[in-house]
Each structure stands twice: as structure tokens, then as C-alpha cells.
Design brief:
alpha/beta, globular, Alkaline Phosphatase, subunit A, nine-stranded mixed sheet, four-stranded antiparallel sheet, OpgB/LTA_synthase_biosynth, 2 domains
Length: about 575
């Protein structure tokens, strides 16, 4: 009901044969403590179903064993986890509670224990096991080719799907690195680079400051609720700068850390797992390394502990000169699990001033955190009064948290200007990933989002984030409506700073010059095979034919013959996976 929509008894019945296989094995091999084995097996299978519910509520995907790598992150974001749970989810454990209750009742417990010791006919067990196994295979085998993970889980049954992902974990066939060239990538993306690109080297010698805004979606820009401006500082910056309103996230299981990876490499996220956990030992061609080749100092600023999402390894892989984490920022004015954005920006500005006084220009990436899910910031950080209809809602909490994030950003901008850093820097600001998953919204939240958008909140709205580029004396008030994504930031910045990328494989494009076409493959938050093109968001089904075409904002129609884009998007992902997987490890 939560995952597949509506009471789906067919899918529920598909779980029965799997459970019967487990129970047959218990009857076959257990001679003692059968009830303990039954209860344990029931608890494990129910726990899997509960994990699927919880994970879907945040990510919108079916959790698999690969997410076990995230277990050590859960305690750090426990507030986010608990905020997702509706009390009725616990009803999946009701049979275990009933069984436990009767087991501790002496008479019933003794009766069940005695009954469990009775031997079931081997022929009956063999027949039941064989029929159950056949039913499981009947559900699994015809649906293996389905690309949409949710469709696949619905067709197979959740427990069958979980078993299938473990047993079918075959390695992806990799393309030889010698066959992966920039010319090939550009041809797949239909890129035609201009002989004399606009704004080439326009920001030569300037500092680069990239600000990554936590969970910041594009609809917040210029949003007013009952006449109240939600993000006045971002609005002012967007009005004075290059503002890209048709810009999309490219993250996956690693969320914020994936955004750091994509922006700093111009590669796509891995097919499974967070980039920080799949590629941590790789010596990644990256923006920090590119900047260092041209005489820049590089640093990254994040208020949480560097071990969170394995960032200590990520920063080595990216080649940053140094990082600043919780050890530098401390616990002062803590919000959620780290120092507030106000502390982040104040201490970062002071450090940037020291770097600015050095003999090198610098590249600094600054990661905001205070507007983190579940967005319940402390009252001392309230900077606005929500309308009554927004109070005690998920959307209302999100808007108030982003209003505070905008307030803190405004302080940072003023601080950089006062220290003389702003005018000598290129400022790049973007949202790291969505904040309001469709699948996490209740009826009231959906109504509020419809009020904000003027239409039902959809998948394209959900992954739409802003990009703003500001450079004194270079940029001007201008809205760019061409398609772009996080993978495009590196080549766009390289163009402004005058850094050639001829010898650096990248999958993005300079969106100040290559404006007519773009293609953004999507993973994780959307089914494998999904992509964003210039006029549509395509969501794959079992494959292309049963996929869904959704027009982007401003597009009146969509192409119903985009199979070529579908195939090209998959090819881009395969090339990125192959290239990064075969890079040498850092030493």
C-alpha cells in the first residue's frame, strides 16, 4: 500500500511461497527449538518488509543488501529516520507480538512447544517446498530484465526481489578505458563545442567559492507565502547573477556526499552504493586537481565529522589540499548533528581571508548543513512566522529551515564583501539534492505543494535544484533556461577560469556555451534508465516501451519517440562506470 499504491493483494501473496520455503527448511533441519527458529525467521522477514517501508519513504526506492553500508550513518541521522515513520507501520510486527504473548503464557507456550515437535511428513515437506520454489521462480525469472527497480520488486514480490539481488550480483561488463574518449562522450551527448566559447578565461586568476546548499530545491527561489519572501538573500543573488532555473540533481544513495563527488569530477554516481563507498580509493581526475595544476590552493569546509559518509577517503580521492570538519568548527551553536550554518560561514570566512592573503588564489567548497532533513530546526533559529496552515507540517518545517539557511547565507555574503573576498571571486551556488520527496508527503503536504506550484507536485519538480553563478564585473542579471545538471558545473567553471579540459575526461558540458541540447541520466531517486532531456523527464518502466514521459516546466509537449535518448543515457552511464572503476588507486 505504501510502496506500490493501494491494497495490492497479488503482490502480498507473492511473499507467501518465500515464507513457506523458509518454514520448510526449519521443519526439515531443526530438531530442537523450532519455535525460536520460526520466531526468528518471522522477525527477519518482517524486519526486511519494515526496512523497505522506511527506506522507500525517504529515497523512493526498494532497499537492498547494498544499503547495509549505510548502517553506520543511521545513528547520525536518527531524527530523520524517526520522522519518516507512521505508527501504523508497526502493524507489520503484530503477528510477532501475538506469537510472543502466547509463548510467554505457560500453558499456551507448552502446547505450542509440544505441537512443534511433531514431525511433518517428509513427502509433504518436499511437495510444499517444490511447489513454493516453483512459484518463486515463476515470479522471478520472467521479470529479471525489468529496469525499474520498483516495478521489478512488485512483479517478483519483495522477499523474492531481495533474494534475487543477492544471488544475481554479477559484475558489470566494463568498457576498455582506451575506448572511452572525450570525443566519444561528446558525440553521444550531441555536443558541438564552439571555436571561440563565450566568457572563456573571463574570470582568470579569481578565487572560486562553491557553496552547496543542503536540500535546497528550485521552487524556493522567488517564493512568497502570503506575501512573505522565503529566501530573500538567494532571490537577490539570483536577480543580480546568472541564474539557471532548469537545473537538476545527479545524486544517489550518498546524497550530499554524492553531490560533492559529481560536482568535483563531472562523473555520474555508481550503479549501487554511495560514491564515497564505491570509489574511495580512486585517484579521481577532479576540480581540485585541475585548480592545483593552475596554481590554486584548495580546501573544503564541512561542519560534521570527516568520517561521516567516508569523506576522509573522498577528499583524498578528489585531491583537496586539506579539509575543515567538526574538529575545526566545534559544537558551538549546534543544529542537528553539527555546528550551525552561522558558525560554518563565520569561521569559513575568516579562514578564506587568510587564504586570500596568501600568494595563491584559492578554490573552496563550502557545505551547508542546518537545513537537513527532517528540518525541525530549534526555535532559536526561527527567522519567520509560518502561516497557520503550514504549522506542524513537513512542508512548513522545510520552508522554515530553508528560510534560516538563507538568513545564514546572507550573513556569509556580507562577510565576504566586507573582507574584500567577494569581488575577487567566482561564486557558484547550488542545491545538493531534493528536500521534499513525493513519497514522504502526506495529504496536507501535497495540498500545500499544489498551492505553491499551482499544479500537483511531480518528479521533475522534486529533482529540480537551482544554480547561481556570480562574478563581479563578469556576470549580469540573466536567467538561463537551458537544461543543466550538477555534472555540468566542472566544465562550466573551467571555461570561466580558462582551464582547458582536453586531457580530462568529463561527462558534463559547459552550459554557458553548449545550450541547445543536453542529456542527464538519472539513477537511484528515479528508476534506472530514467533521464532528463531538453523537454521531458522520462521514467523507465520494465524498459523503454512502458516508460512514462513527463514534460518539464515550460514544455508543452514531450517526445514520444525518445528511444535514442534512452539508449544514449544508458551508454553514458556505462562509460562513466567503466572509466571510474578502472582508474588507478591513490597512494
Amino acid at each position: 500500500m505504501v510502496v506500490f499504491g493501494g491494497p495490492n493483494w497479488t503482490t502480498l501473496l507473492k511473499e507467501v511461497p518465500f515464507a513457506l520455503i523458509v518454514f520448510c527448511l526449519i521443519e526439515w533441519f531443526a530438531t530442537k527449538r523450532k519455535l525460536v527458529y520460526y520466531l526468528s525467521a518471522n522477525l527477519l522477514m518482517t524486519g526486511i518488509l519494515f526496512a523497505v517501508l522506511m527506506y522507500y519513504k525517504y529515497y523512493g526506492v526498494i532497499v537492498t543488501y547494498s544499503a547495509l553500508n549505510q548502517v553506520n550513518q543511521v545513528t547520525a541521522v536518527s531524527n530523520s529516520v524517526f520522522s519518516l515513520m507512521d505508527p501504523y507501520y508497526l502493524l507489520v510486527f503484530i503477528d510477532i507480538v501475538v506469537m510472543g504473548y502466547y509463548l510467554i503464557r505457560r500453558r499456551k507456550g507448552q502446547y505450542w512447544k509440544a505441537a512443534s515437535q511433531k514431525r511433518v511428513s517428509r513427502s509433504v515437506l518436499a511437495t510444499l517446498f517444490g511447489v513454493s520454489l516453483a512459484l518463486c521462480l515463476f515470479n522471478i525469472l520472467p521479470n529479471r530484465a525489468s529496469m525499474n527497480e520498483i516495478v521489478k520488486a512488485e512483479q517478483m514480490g519483495i522477499l523474492n526481489y531481495e533474494a534475487y539481488t543477492i544471488l544475481s550480483n554479477k559484475k558489470q561488463e566494463l568498457v576498455n578505458p582506451s575506448e572511452i574518449t572525450q570525443a566519444k562522450i561528446d558525440d553521444i551527448k550531441r555536443i558541438q563545442k564552439p571555436a571561440s566559447p563565450k566568457l572563456w578565461n573571463a574570470a582568470s586568476g579569481k578565487n572560486l567559492i562553491i557553496i552547496q546548499m543542503e536540500s535546497f530545491q528550485n521552487f524556493l527561489i522567488h517564493l512568497k507565502i502570503d506575501g512573505q519572501e522565503i529566501t530573500p538573500n538567494m532571490n537577490k543573488l539570483a536577480n543580480e547573477s546568472y541564474y539557471f532555473n532548469n537545473f537538476y540533481q545527479g545524486v544517489g544513495q550518498g546524497n550530499t556526499s554524492d553531490a560533492e563527488f559529481v560536482v568535483n569530477t563531472s562523473y555520474y554516481i555508481p550503479p549501487n552504493g554511495a560514491a564515497t563507498q564505491v570509489y574511495p580509493k580512486k585517484e579521481l581526475p577532479s576540480l581540485p586537481r585541475l585548480m592545483q595544476q593552475h596554481g590554486y590552493d584548495t580546501a573544503t569546509f564541512h561542519t560534521n565529522v570527516v568520517e561521516f559518509w567516508n569523506r576522509s577517503e573522498l577528499y583524498k580521492a578528489l585531491g583537496f589540499n586539506r579539509y575543515y570538519d567538526k574538529e575545526f568548527f566545534g559544537d558551538e551553536d549546534s543544529v542537528f548533528f553539527a555546528a550551525s550554518d552561522e558558525v560554518l560561514y563565520a569561521k569559513t570566512a575568516a579562514e578564506l581571508e587568510k587564504m586570500d592573503q596568501g600568494d595563491k588564489p584559492f578554490y573552496a567548497q563550502v557545505i551547508s548543513m542546518s537545513s537537513h532533513h527532517p528540518f525541525t530546526i530549534p526555535e532559536r533559529k526561527y527567522k519567520m512566522e509560518l502561516p497557520k496552515r503550514y504549522e506542524n507540517t513537513f512542508v512548513g518545517d522545510y520552508i522554515r529551515a530553508q528560510n534560516y539557511a538563507d538568513y545564514a547565507l546572507g550573513l556569509f555574503i556580507d562577510d565576504l564583501k566586507q573582507r574584500g573576498i567577494w569581488d575577487n571571486s567566482v561564486i557558484v551556488l547550488y542545491g545538493d539534492h531534493l528536500g521534499l520527496p513525493i513519497y514522504s508527503l502526506d495529504r496536507d503536504d501535497k495540498e500545500l505543494m499544489k498551492e505553491i506550484y499551482g499544479h500537483d507536485y511531480g518528479s521533475a519538480d522534486m529533482i529540480n535544484i537551482p544554480l547561481i553563478i556570480s562574478a563581479s564585473g563578469i556576470t549580469e542579471p540573466k536567467v538561463y533556461s537551458q537544461l543543466g545538471g550538477q555534472v555540468d558545473i566542472l566544465p562550466t567553471v573551467a571555461n570561466l577560469l580558462g582551464f582547458p579540459l582536453d586531457d580530462q575526461i568529463h561527462f558534463g558540458q559547459d552550459i554557458l556555451n553548449n545550450t541547445s541540447v543536453n542529456l542527464l541520466p538519472q539513477r537511484y531517486y528515479l528508476p534506472t534508465g530514467s533521464f532528463v532531456s531538453s523537454d521531458e523527464l522520462f521514467l523507465s518502466g520494465s524498459g523503454y516501451e512502458d516508460g512514462t514521459h513527463l514534460p518539464l516546466s515550460g514544455a508543452s509537449t514531450v517526445s514520444l519517440d525518445s528511444a535514442d535518448e534512452f539508449n544514449r543515457a544508458l551508454e553514458l552511464l556505462k562509460l562513466s562506470d567503466s572509466y571510474v572503476s578502472q582508474l588507478p588507486n591513490w597512494k
